[in-house]
Design goal:
The protein has about 400 residues and is α/β, with parallel strands linked by helices. Helices cover about 35% and strands about 15% of the residues. The chain is elongated and about 70 Å long.
Length: about 400
């Protein structure tokens, strides 16, 4: 693969060098304990490899939104022990005050976590003094946090211009997967875009119609497109003021030769609750005034599976229905299982991202079967919008 960034393979002999590694350690906490260690586990390959090569590894990360204030309950000291357990080797915590003295005491192969980068108000401003302070702590820089790459902050972008910069294993895997999915994909390409509101995914939809062959629209946003086509969507979530924008996207898709897929049968109910008595499936033109569309119907779900069987690449962001509440998870679960089967067969490259999407794939039990699942939210969306991510651009050779 023709990459325009350097990886750990390009680093040479790093024994004794201090390597500053930007990771995403911004994990959820409950009662003082880490409630989901996915991001900690994702950091392990890069950190372990650098330590095994004799580097003195210092992790940079943010934690919460302290906005430049030193807030004890947002100290990365809270994450140091949990990361040590996941890594399986000692990890020390380094306060940012007196950091250079503490880092000077590290031995080859040691791992340390520096205090929350956002305790410094200059971090989010990408301030030159903050960049200089961080860069002075190390010899080399590795960015392994794609999920923070859409922000031009001191620890994600500024420092990459001061020190020799490389992509970590997680970043490398993410960029390779995204290149396969939308950079130079194998056609036909399908995109599933779901979620509540068209307004939050407008830029994504506008960008994708020119890049993919099939655009599958689900979730509440499908209702806005149905309304634009003259369908009465009853009490469904719908942005009626954006039907004109939906028409523009239909027109752009026509010009680009992209087929937009909307459901022709839907699952409706008079109330949004688990397994409600008023639940039924119907044609989209049969939605009553007091009903809400809460999922794609079984016939449309089957038709979408047939679309995917004829595609080589799939990008997925957002569920098809209100998947957190059964039985409105049926379409999302069914399409997820179809995607997994096609990926296992080797006929489909499947790349998914965004919090809801990852949760839905885990719920279907198929996250491991996908070609690549991105844990990034905002960065994944901005990439789907075709935007250049500052943290990635800064790694360019």
């Amino acid at each position: 693969m023709n990459r325009n960034f350097r990886t750990l393979d390009d680093m040479g002999n790093i024994a004794g060098q201090v390597v500053l590694v930007r990771e995403d350690l911004n994990v959820p906490m409950a009662d003082g304990a880490v409630s989901d260690d996915t991001r900690l586990r994702a950091a392990v390959p890069t950190v372990a490899e650098l330590a095994d090569k004799g580097a003195r590894v210092v992790l940079l990360a943010h934690f919460g939104r302290p906005k430049g204030e030193r807030t004890p309950d947002l100290s990365l000291a809270l994450v140091t022990r949990p990361f040590e357990q996941v890594l399986g080797r000692p990890v020390r915590f380094v306060d940012d005050q007196g950091a250079s003295e503490a880092i000077a005491l590290l031995k080859d192969g040691d791992v340390a976590i520096l205090e929350n980068t956002r305790f410094d108000a200059g971090e989010e401003k990408n301030a030159s003094e903050t960049i200089d302070r961080l860069a002075a702590l190390g010899d080399l820089y590795v960015n392994d946090a794609f999920s923070a790459a859409h922000r031009a902050h001191a620890s994600t972008e500024g420092i990459a211009k001061k020190l020799p910069a490389f992509a970590g294993r997680q970043m490398e895997a993410e960029l390779d997967a995204l290149e396969k999915a939308l950079g130079t994909p194998e056609h036909p390409v399908a995109a599933v875009v779901g979620g509540a509101k068209v307004s939050s995914k407008l830029d994504v939809l506008k960008h994708l119609v020119g890049r993919v062959d099939h655009l599958i629209i689900g979730g509440g946003m499908a209702n806005t497109f149905l309304a634009a086509r003259g369908v009465n969507v009853g009490k469904s979530l719908c942005e009626h003021d954006l039907t004109g924008t939906a028409e523009e996207i239909f027109d752009a898709a026509d010009r680009a030769g992209c087929t937009i897929h909307l459901p022709y049968d839907v699952v409706v109910s008079k109330e949004f609750a688990a397994n409600p008595p008023s639940l039924r499936s119907c044609n989209v033109h049969e939605v009553a005034a007091d009903e809400m569309i809460l999922d794609i119907g079984p016939a449309a779900t089957e038709a979408l599976a047939d679309v995917l069987k004829n595609c080589r690449t799939l990008v997925w962001n957002g569920p098809l229905g209100a998947f957190e509440t059964p039985p409105f998870d049926a379409a999302t679960m069914a399409l997820a299982r179809t995607t997994a089967a096609l990926t296992r067969d080797g006929s489909l490259v499947s790349v998914a991202g965004g919090g809801d999407t990852v949760a839905a794939l885990n719920q279907a039990g198929v996250a491991d079967a996908m070609t690549f699942v991105s844990t990034a939210g905002g960065a994944f969306l901005e990439w789907m919008e075709g935007k250049e991510l500052p943290g990635v651009k800064a790694l360019a050779r």
